[in-house]
Design goal:
single chain; 187 residues; alpha+beta; 6 strands; 43% helix
């Protein structure tokens, strides 16, 4: 039967060190130690609440970026394309918000001034609403991807098909840079 360490036992106490190491005792031993470590910045005045919040946000971004692998990147790119084609603007923008907690940067077209902000993806959606986008080719390597996209829509009352080359870089800081190579046009 498991022996539990009482709540008075502190980290480093000889009773804790000599206890048998079954799962329940390990958990009972670790929880108070973790709680003490988490509370320390507030109780000892070592860091302000704002500094602790910044540390927490940075840790959260690290966790998100650690799980951002090639499969997740490809799933995001295919999902945002589906949301665009289905006219689901809110879901389309939400996908970008989730994948880019550090911010969104866009070169559209490449060679123009780089723009920053999530509002840009909404503006692109609005500009090309009703168009159908299809990946001709999508390649994901590490934290980067490249695609050839067929863009079909109406321009000046005539159906058009335009191909674009697009590159996507997912930064370790949570930023997302999308670069669109396409002929200059106005929809």
């Amino acid at each position: 039967m498991a022996r539990f360490i009482d709540s008075e036992t502190r980290v480093g106490d000889s009773r804790a060190a000599s206890a048998s190491h079954d799962c329940c005792e390990t958990i009972a031993y670790c929880i108070p130690a973790i709680a003490c470590r988490l509370a320390r910045p507030f109780s000892h005045g070592q860091r302000s609440f704002q500094q602790s919040e910044q540390r927490l946000r940075a840790a959260k971004k690290d966790i998100q970026m650690a799980t951002l692998d090639a499969d997740r990147i490809e799933a995001f790119l295919r999902h945002q394309l589906d949301m665009f084609n289905q006219g689901q603007r809110d879901d389309f923008i939400a996908a970008y918000r989730d994948i880019a907690p550090g911010g969104l940067l866009i070169d559209d077209p490449v060679g123009s001034d780089r723009q920053e902000g999530l509002h840009l993806i909404g503006e692109l959606f609005d500009r090309y609403v009703g168009w159908k986008l299809t990946f001709v080719e999508l390649i994901v390597n590490g934290h980067e991807a490249a695609a050839c996209v067929r863009n079909e829509g109406m321009m000046n009352g005539h159906p058009v098909t335009v191909h674009s080359l697009e590159t996507y870089h997912f930064g370790e800081d949570g930023t997302f840079l999308a670069r669109y190579f396409h002929p200059a046009m106005s929809a």
